[in-house]
Amino acid sequence: MSVRLAIDIGGTFTDATLIDEETGKVSIAKVLSTPFDPSVGFMAATERILTDSGVLAGDVRFVVHGTTVATNAIIEGKVARGGFITTDGFRDLLEIARQTRPSLYDTQFEKTPPLVPRDRALTVIERLGPGGEVLKPLDDASVREAAARLRAEGVEAVAVCLLHAYINPAHEKRVGEILAEELPGIPISLSSEVAPEFREYLRASTTVINSAIRPVVGRYLENIEKRLAEAGVTAELLVMQSSGGVFTSGAAARKPVFMVESGPAAGVIASANLGSQLGYPDILSFDMGGTTAKVGLIQKGSPSITKDYSVGSHAGGAVGGQSLSGYPVRTPVIDLVEIGAGGGSIAWVDSGGLLRVGPRSAGADPGPVCYRRGGTDPTVTDANVVLGRLNPTYFLGGEIGLDIEGARNAIQEKLAGPLGLDVLEAANGIVEIANAAMVNALHLISVQRGYDPRDFVLVAFGGAGPVHANALARDAEMPTLLIPASPGIFSATGLLGTDLKRDASATLMRRFDELNAPEIEESFRALEEAGAAELASEGMPREQIAFIRQIDMRYVGQSYELTIPLPQGAFDGSQTPELLARFHAEHDRTYGFAAPAEATECVSLRLTTVGKIAKPPLRPLDETGITATPKEHRQVYFAEAGGFVETPIYDRYRLTAGAVFDGPAIVEEFDSTIVVHPHYTVTVDTYGNLIIRKGNS
Amino acid sequence: MSENTTIDPVTMQIVGNALASIADEMATTIFRTAHSTVVRDGMDFSAALCDARGETVAQAVTVPFHLGSVPVAMDHLLAKWGDKLRPGDVFVMNDPFDGGIHLQDIFIFRPVFYEETLIGFATTTAHHGDVGGRLPGSAACDNTEIFQEGIRLPWLRLFDRGEPVEAVFEVIKANVRIPRMTLGDMSAQIAATTVAERALQELAARYGVDGLANLMNGLIEHTEKLVRQEIAAWPDGTASFTDYLDSDGIERRDVKIHATVTIHGDEVTADLTESAPMVRGSLNSTRSFVQACVYQAVRAALEVEVPNTSGAFRPITILTKPGTIAHVVMPGASSMRGVTGFRVLDAVQGAIAQLIPTRVGAAGEGGNTLAVFGAERPDGTGRYIFYELVVGTWGATPRNDGNDGLTNPASLAANIPVEVAESEFPIFVESYGLIPDSGGAGQYRGGLAIQRSWRCLTPETSLIVRSDRAAHPPYGLQGGMPGSLSSNTLVSPDGTETRLPSMFSMTIGDGDTYIHHMAGGGGWGNPLDRDPQDVLDDVIDGKVSRHAAFTDYGVILHDDLTVDTDGTTKERDGRRN
C-alpha cells in the first residue's frame, strides 16, 4: 500500500487528507490549530489520520504541506533580526519604498515600516550601469566594514540588493562570498538569486522578505521533519508554493519567499485538478471562510499567475493589481482577489444611514452573535441563521449550537431598527451586500483581466462558500456551479495533486526587431539545465521533467509587461511572428486594444520547470440512484420567492450518484451547508460533486 | 423593499461599490498601458465616473487635484457640447480657459449611452510629458503667457460616433515633440473610457436607466449628508493663514497665498481673494484647480468615511478674484501652477488647523518637485524627455510622526525607479535618500526630507526645475518646529558648486550633477513633550543626530545610547521655565 498525506494549516483548523494511490480512497481529519507551535497541530492531525485510516507510517510516500507560517511571520513581525546591504547612495531604498499610499483621503495613513530598520541598512562602494557594465568596481573593504557592523548588531540574516544586479550578478556574488567569510552560519539572500528582476525596490523587497523569514521557516520545517521521522514517516516533506507547485523542504528553507501564499494556493490548485478530471478547464474558484473570501481564475486547466503582489497590504487600495502598501513580492503568486467578506464580517449602519458589511470581522473569537461566545455585533453568519439557511442544530455536525434568537435580536437592534427595515429585510440586505462584494471580486478577477465570467464554471468551497455560491453564480450569470465533496477541507485535497515546480527568470531587455534568437535560446537552455538539475537532485526522474517557456513583453515605451507563452520547440526566430501575434492578442484581451504597428520589446525570460506527479484517481460514490429524499423540511427565506418557503433539507452523505432535485433546497454536511435557490437544479455526479444549474428538472 | 423610497440602503451600497470598482478598473487600464514615465511610473493621472448631469459618482485611487477639477471641466463640456452628445463620441480638452487646469493635463471624457439614453460619463485626466511649446516638457516656470506652453485644445470631439476625428489627431501629432509618447498615453486614456462604458451599460441593464440615475443621485445626496453632518459638529468660526511661494517663476520674491476659512453651520467657505496678483511666470492657477485644493483640504479634515462623489463638494464655497495667482485670466501662463495649488492647500489647512486643531497635520514638503531633463540621445536615436517627479514627505499629524518619504496628501505620485530612469535615459542617478535632522521637531516629528541627484551624460541637456520652500519652510503646528528648507545645487565635473534658485530653466553640460534637497515636514506639538524613547529610536536609526536630540528635544543620551532620564527631565524642566 502507498498513500499520500496532505496537511493544511489554517487559522482555526489543521486539516489532514490522505489518499490511497491505487484506489483513490480519501480519508480526512480535522484538529484544532496550535498557533503557538503549528507543528503540534501538524503532528496531531498526522497521527489522527493514520490511526483512523489504519495506515502505517511507512506506507506514506510523500507528505505535502500548505502553511501560512511565512505570511504570518511577516504580518506578526516575527522576523529575523536582519541586515540589508545595497549600493552606496541608496541606503534608504527600503525606508522610502515607492512613496505611494492606498487611500485617497486618509490623512492618518502610516507607511508600512521596513523589515530592516535604517540602522541595519548599510551600503557598499560599487556601481553598475544599466547594461551591467562596471562603473565603479566593488570595494571589498567596504563589504568587510559593513559585515563587521552587522556582526556587532547581532544580525541573524542578511539581504543584498545592488543596483542593476538583475543583469550582472558579479558584485552581489562577491559580496555574498565575503559575507560568508565574515558572518559564518548567517544565511545570505542575494537579489540576483532570489528574484533577478528589473526595478530595484521590488527586487530588494522580495529579497528582504526572503531573508527575514529564512530562519523562522527553516527552523519550522526542520522541526516538522524531525517529528515526522520520530513518528516513523520517512517520506519526503514537500511544501506548497505561492505559484501552485510544490518544492522540497530544503528548497523551501532557502527560498521561503516563494511560499508566502502557500495556504490559499492549495484551494485554487484543487479546483484546477478537479476541473481537469471532470472536463471543466475554465473555472473561477471561490473560497469563503470566516474572515475573507478569495477568488481565483483557472483557464485551460492552469491557474492565472501574477507577479504583482504585496504581503500585509491594505485591502482594496490597489491600482493595476499593484498594491500601494505592504511589502511587495516579485515571485510568481497565484492571482487571487481577496476581500474582507467572510462569515464573521460585521454588518453596521454608517452615520448617513446606509447598511455596510465588513471589513471588520468578529473572527473566531468572539465570533458571530449566534456562536454564544460573547459576540454582540451581527455578522453574515447571523444573517444566514435568521434566514433559515444554516441549521442551528447541525453546524459543524452539531458541535456548535447556534443561537437564532440572539442573532435576530442583534440584527433587529443594531440594523433593522435604525434603518427602518424589518428584521428579515435587514438580514437579507446583509447577505445581498456581502454577495455583491463577492460578485465584484469575481468581476475583478475575470472582467478586469479581459475574461467573461459566463464562460467559466464556478467552483465553491470553504466553510461559507457553498452558502453563497448559488446567488453569486446567478448574479454573475455563470451557468454552472460545482460544489466538491467536503468543501470545508477541499483546499487540503489540492495539495495531493500538485506537481514539483521551480520558477526562474532572467532579465533580457531587447527590442524585437533587434532580437538575437541564439541568445534567447541559450538563456533558456541555461535556465532549463539549472532547473532540471535541481529537480533531479531531489529525486525526480528526468523523463518526468517538463519545461514551460514564457517571455515578458511590452510595447516599446511601456513599463508593464505581459507574460506570453513561447511556441513549442527550440527558439530559432521562426516563432517570432507567432509570438508577436500572441502578444497583440493578449494586449487586446487584457486592455481592450492592440497596436500591431508599434515596436515591441522583450524584458524577461521566464522558465517553469515541472516535475510531473501522477494525479490521484477520483473515487466514485458507492451507490447510484436518481431519487434524493430529504431528511427534513424547514422554513428558509428566499427574497425571490417573496419570503420564507418550506424547503427540503438533504443530508449530503445520503445522496446517491445520479440523483437530481430542484431548489429551493439546502444540503447539509459536516463542514459546510449548500444553499440552492429556487429555479435551480442539483445533479449529483458520479463522484459526489453537486452540479447546480439554472432551470427545473 | 419598496421601489419608491428615496434611499434603499442595500442597493445603494451595492451600486456605490460597483461604481468605485469601475473607476479603479479605468485607472488600472491607464497605468498598465501608458507610455510615459510620468504616467506609468509616476502615476500622475486620474479616473472618475459621472452621472448623466456630470456630477461625480466615483473616483479611482488617483490624484485628488485632478479629481476635484472634474466638475468645472464637465461644466464647460456640457455648455459647449451638451446637446450634441452621441453614442461613440469621445471628447478631449487641455485648455485652462475652457475647463482645464494646465496644458499638460489632458482630459478625455466619454459620454456613455444605454441604447439612446445618456447614462453618465467616463472621465480621465493624465499629465502628459510634453505638449509642445517653447521648451522640452512644455511646462516651465519662466513661461510668461499661455502661447509659450504648448498646444491648446478647447473641448473638441476626438471620436465621432466611434470614428477617430483624424484632423484633431493630426494637429496634436504635429505640435508635440514625441508624438508616440503623447498619443500612446492618450490611447491608454481612451481605452480606460471604453472599459468604463461597458461596465456602466451593464449597471443600466441591471437597474434600468432611471433606476441607475436615482441610485447615483442618492449616492451623491448621501455623501452630502455625511459631510454636512460632520461639518455641523465642528465649532463655528473664522481663521486666516498666510503662506508664501519663493518665486514668481522668474526670480526670487515672496508671493503671498492668503486663505480665510469660515465654518458656519454645516458649510465651509474658503476665501483666497487676498492672495497675490498674477505673477509673470507660469505659477498662476485656474480657479478650478484652487477649488480642487480646497476640496482636498476639507475632505482631508473629515473623520467620517464618505463615498467619493461630488456631494462632498456641495457644502463648500470658494471665493477667488480674477487676475490673482489663484484665478488666472488670459493670457496668463499656468503650466507650473501645481506648486501654487500645494501652497493653497497648505494655507487653507493652516487656517482650518486653528479651528479644529486635532484634525489637521503640519505642512509636508510643499509639493512634488518637477525636474524635466531633455536632450538629443548620444546614440543618435532622437530626442528624450525625462519628466522626473520627485516625491516628498509628510508633516507630523496630531497622532503620528510624519511619514518619511510619502506622496503629498493631495497627490498620488510614485517615485520613478532608478533602474527604470537609467535604462531609458542617458542619465545617472547618483543618490536618493532621506536627509537626517530635516524633519521639524515636535511631540510628533515631521517626515525627513528627500534628496535625489542626477548626473547628465549628454553635452547639452535642457533642465527645467520647479521646486519651492527654499525661503519659507513647511510650517509646524501646536508648538512643532518647521521642516528644513529645500535647496538646489549644480556640481560641475571639476567640483565647482553653484547654488540655484527654487525655480529655473537652464542648459547643463556633460558630467554636471544636479543635486536636489526637498524640504522636510513640519512637526506637531511641543518637542519637549516627545517621548525620549522615540527620540532615542530616531538617533539609533540615524534620522536625528545626538546633537539635535539635545538642542531640539532636550533629550540627553548616555554614550551607550540609552536615555539619561534624570538629566533629560531636568533639562526639559529648565527649558519650560
TrEMBL record, chain A:
Q: Where is the Hydantoinase A/oxoprolinase domain?
A: 203-502
Q: Which intervals hold domain Hydantoinase/oxoprolinase N-terminal?
A: 4-182
Annotated GO molecular function terms are:
5-oxoprolinase (ATP-hydrolyzing) activity
Q: Name one Pfam family in it.
A: Hydant_A_N
Example GO BP: glutathione metabolic process
Q: Under the cellular component aspect of Gene Ontology, which terms does the record hold? A: cytosol
Q: Which residues form the Acetophenone carboxylase-like C-terminal domain?
A: 517-687
PANTHER family, per this entry? 5-OXOPROLINASE RELATED, HYPOTHETICAL 5-OXOPROLINASE (EUROFUNG)-RELATED
Q: What is this protein called?
A: Unannotated protein
From TrEMBL, chain B:
Q: Can you cite a GO biological process for this protein?
A: glutathione metabolic process
* Pfam families registered for this protein in UniProt: Hydantoinase_B
Q: Which organism is it from?
A: freshwater metagenome
Q: Give all residue intervals belonging to the Hydantoinase B/oxoprolinase domain.
A: 8-527
Q: Which GO terms describe its molecular function?
A: 5-oxoprolinase (ATP-hydrolyzing) activity
What is the protein named? Unannotated protein
GO CC terms in record: cytosol
